[in-house]
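2024-03-11 09:14:02 INFO receiving multi-entity request
2024-03-11 09:14:02 INFO entity count = two
2024-03-11 09:14:03 INFO echoing inputs for audit
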Amino acid sequence: MLLETRHLHIGYGDAPAVWDATLDVDAGEIVSVIGPNGAGKTTLINAIAGLLRCRQGDLRFDGVDMTNLKAHEFCGHGIALVPEGRRLFAKMSVEENLELGCYLQAARAARSDSLERVYALFPVLRQKRLQPAGELSGGQQQMVAIGRALMARPRIVLFDEPSLGLAPAIVDDMFDIIVRVRDDGAAVLLVEQNVLKALGIADRAYVLEQGRIVAQGVPNELLDQPHIREAYLGV
Amino acid sequence: MPSATLLGQALISGVLAGGMYGLLAMGLSLSWGLLRLVNLSHFALAFLSAYIVYELGTKYGVAPWWSAAMVVPVMFGVGAAQYWLFDRFHVNELASLLITFSFAVIVEAGIQIYWTADYRRFETHYSTLSFKVGPFFVPVLELVLCVVASVLAWGTWMWLRKTYVGKGLRAAAEDADIAAAYGVDHRKLAYLLSGIGAAYAGIAGTFIALIATLAPAQIWAWLGVVFAVVIIGRLGNPLGALLAGMLIGASESLAMAVLSPAWAPVVSFSVLIVILLWDPEWL
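2024-03-11 09:21:47 INFO inference complete, emitting structure
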């Protein structure tokens, strides 16, 4: 198993926001975590990216215990985050944002090759490479955020609400890109409010409600559960 | 209206004097812009360095460049140690202002105890050297200062723009968490940058020892002007700091020549206000 979390408790301040989260992602898989706003999806993904310390439980990546590592040590193991709201370095150029993705030595060695791949995937970014990232449209900024993650040569990419705030026409493209990232060899953990889309591309999925994982399984089974149909599809 | 020669001379002297503003502003701008720490003790470190260069020069006959070779690395260490304190006590932008102000007051007191409040002057045979270009006098020491400041400003600017360490620092200044998620160890880089800022204070101090008359209270003399320079030059931009320093130096000097010396202090903040209101595209 590539990513394993066991009974993770994660929280800000005194109040835990996620309880007892146990989930797995295997190499080559797309795993979606769905759930309503405020369920703790971003908290969970930030903890897996190393930005939040887990209060309890185990976080293992490729057999390595990550629980006590510092935030800047996660990327080197092959974990890359596409954060909610993109969070680009707005004053820096598009290319500098991408280069930040290959900040670490191992990824830096493959810089030109990775850059070519990202520009092949998103040709528009090549034209805009010298522009400040903050001046791009929402869809283009999302491309930079994904490109930045790919520059790190990750073994898993964590997507946090990649469709949020994008024009409907681009949302489908975004999910195609996620499938492509997986086909190119990285596992994907996807956190999404767009339940149908997220389940549509997933191999397996977890349902997170009020900080707890309440259901898991392959997408078709989940869609058959009355509770899921009612809560997320309104039927 | 003063003659063209006088104005030209005022412009040259002003730009060269502005090199000192720029040099002092650089370290302040780096720490403020990239670490979100406003280091008021920067001026105190510069004067402490100046006094040490003065002491080594007058008591032991050490040449200022050898003194600088000793003082600058020590200041780097002081800067790194300061960052350790900031980090240890989770100092934010506002608190840093208060803490470094206290630190500056302590250094000022220390200088006053050891060197007394008397004016001190490090006399060297080259401190008043100048050469003539047409009708204008160019002071050699100020020119050297400007060359050193320009090399440092350009080098630091390139370092921030072209190296991964520089890009990591700029990225962390915008979003420290996300930079960390891509492997940027912000604390490690912050120690380095804090040390570099203080080392620049050491370099500025060496020139202060040679050019200025030293007194403990002089620590505060350049505070206002240099703050204006830091802001006009844009936080975290060493090249901007140098150019803004020269702009303010030239404006002050011209104001003194055309109006009267009393106008000089008004100029820096007037230029600051005008530029903030105007907000030109090229800044």
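2024-03-11 09:21:48 INFO post-check: The interface with chain B takes residues 49-51, 70-76, 80-81, 83, 87, 89-92, 96, 99-101, 103-104, 108, 148, 152 of chain A (CB under 8 Å).
2024-03-11 09:21:48 INFO post-check: The mean pLDDT of chain A is 94.
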